[in-house]
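FAQ: What does a multi-protein file look like?

Like this. Sequence, then tokens, then the next protein.
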Amino acid sequence: MNSNVSRPTPRANTGSLWRNVVSDAGMAFIRLERRFDPLFRPAFDAFLRDPLARFTTALINSRRENEGLGIAEERLLPDEESFTDSIVKSFTRQMTDLWKPGGFERGGNTKTQGIVRGEFIVHDDIPEHMKRGIYAKPQTFRAWVRFSGPGPYITPDIDDVGFMSISIKLMGVPGEKLMDEEKHTLDMFAVSTPTFVTPDARCNAALQIESVKNAQIFYFVNLRESHILDLVMQSLFIKTQSSPFEAPYFSCVPYLMGEGQAMQYSVWPKTNKRTPIPRLPLRPPDDYLRNAMVASLAEGDVELDFRIQMQTDSHLMPIENAGVLWPEKLSPRISVATLRLPRQKFDSPAQMEFAKRLSYNPWHTIADHRPLGNQSRARKRMYWALSTLRHNMNAVPHYEPTGDELFE
């Protein structure tokens, strides 16, 4: 059963007529705006986006207290486990409502645009203090790289909220892993906005409660605890995407870079190429993003630049708040590796189905790159629980890839 087929987004189900109308009208406006976005977005991005992002970040920081934490230092949220419980409960309910056994999809980053073979090539000119873990020496790892849409629904690409993600699974990584379900892999995640949609796990739990009702707008805009600035920050970067290969991706949450150091990473296209979106402002093909990937990898290799930003200020570059943009003026992003996607054909039904077998978890990693912060601590159990649910409902056992997989 191919559940990775686009379908309309369900209408809001809040139990209130006026709230349903507001939520559905908001989504209709976004879908309309996406048809015209490419007409003005390049100029907006070039002249306004980054200054507005810095201004919004300053407003966010003006409302934050300095917690007095050190570099790479963590602090548990009060009742942190209960927020993780709530997140898992919300996703489980939503997945169970959306998918049938045999066709279960992921709770987030749901639509698979494609899963492709890659090589993660570590550079030899990395600054000495960054030569930790997998970056300690020049080396190359094989990788399975999954590009995906936002979720929790699988919609036509033009109807999503303008958000993409990348999941990188390196294989043949030596050393003991923080989760023992996979012995030789290391997973990395990034999304096409430089800050996470919620600042912490407590807020994430609140967002997922509204997401079950398909009424996320009432998390951001409400009289009890508004998150307008987080909405503004997300809105600066979500847009009508041209290709999964043509956008930067950001980890949004920090990781260790060896003991006593923290970093965030990002993935950047090496060219300024922009694939034309077919038929705009009319309706493009449902899977035009996947089609753009197919065309690019039929022409030749695609290379992406992998960059690391070190934490140098524990307040302005926080560990426990994923809604704060780490300023480049305090710590520039430094290129440390190349993610090379060789020319290939990847969109066979067998290879698309292979994506469903894989489990990505940021805790599939080594101690030198341990995930940091409450969002990552929640992800450990959340990703494991939802992956287990998906595999059980699809009667597919957990699978650790080797890179030797072949598909017809």
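And here is the next protein:
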Amino acid sequence: MAYVPDHSTPDPAAAPALAMPDWAHDHVTALIGIPLRIALIVVGVALVRMLAKRAITRVVQRILEPGDGAREPARRGGRGPAVLHRDRSRARERREQRARTIGSVLSSIVSVVLFVIAVAMVLDQVGIALGPLLASAGVVGLAIGFGAQSLVADYLSGMLIMIEDQYGVGDSVDLGEAVGEVEQVGLRLTHVRDLNGGLWHIRNGEIMRVRNDSQEWARAVLDVAVAYDADLDEVYRVLEETGRTLREDSAFEGVLLEDPAVWGVQSVDADGVTVRLAARTAPMQQWAVTRELRRRVKEALDAAGIALPFPRRTLWLRGDDGADGREAAALR
């Protein structure tokens, strides 16, 4: 009987050659699919980041950098640009600062958000559970939030101040105790130089209210006191004529936005009558206009013979003999 070899048993030497294709077939997803998906995630995130940064740059430049002052649209009946009439270089510096700051912050936020999303997607592809990581990150974020809530409030307030254009470099503001000119606006601090030369550093989160004297227009208000028996119609005429003369002066061209108007009697007391004169001016020019109006009004009242009020006092006289009789005299 002849021996017939059994070919059903594989040759040990050929076993590795047969097993390698089977292993590669079984792990083709891990060898090719996962790295390919990770590469697609990285490329997709980089592309989204690039598009987002370009969009942020275009939007910020379009909103915050309207162009040269000569091409800026007039507002309020052609009375000039709305912000910082007095110094276009400061206005340009202000817009550029806001544009750089807001653009940088928005770009950083987009980069951080996209980075976190990319890391989470990559970890999911390699099979790492995200639940414990998210829970740990939530606890750490909560602790940091409690510890740095004032810092977060400062940064959020700084962003809103810039986006809403509440004030900027060169503005004259009243922030409570700090009253003066803004020298720098950051995300955390605002720097204000007061009248005495002191530099205030104010946290943006502590600013509760702002009075800005530099935006769009201002108003010069002058209260003129005249004698109690003065002719008010003549007083009105003198004040209105003085205001028109001031506006026609070439030195104040573009400073007065309208003819000064007499608002009427502001108060009546025993010493005299107070009449209010007001005029709309360019920003930051209200004080200079008020000083010049005060000088010209004084000269006009003197020329018209209108007396200024003098304090009235009452004098009581007692007789030499100490009698109860008294005489009162009103002195002017």
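Q: Is there any per-entry metadata?
A: Some entries carry free-text notes. For the entry above: Residues 88-125 form the longest helix (38 residues).
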